Amino acid sequence: MPRELKPHGTPGRYQRHIKAGEEACDACREARAQYTRDYRAGKVAAREPAKCGTLPGYYTHRYRGEKACRACLDAYAEYTNDRRAKIRQAKAERAAALDAAWAEVLTEAGVA
What we know:
Layout: H1 11-19, H2 26-40, H3 55-64, H4 70-109
Helix pairs in contact: 1-2, 3-4
């Protein structure tokens, strides 16, 4: 499901204009300028770091140069194991399809 676009007149939509190689509309330019003024004045709250026990939490530890906590290591291990299992399954499915196609070719040729 595609992400919902930010409405015009927001800093997020300004970024969309720029990434698309478009010239930003006046409302988006003004919103970006206001955000920049607020940021420089210290009015924009800092983002909270990712929670421990999640994949983003693991990467936050790495970014900070810290050793990841046990909960984040477990989350990373779970992600890695799931990813590797999906890759193994996809390889097995491709190999089975190839074997079936090869058997059909050999049958048609009268070899098998």
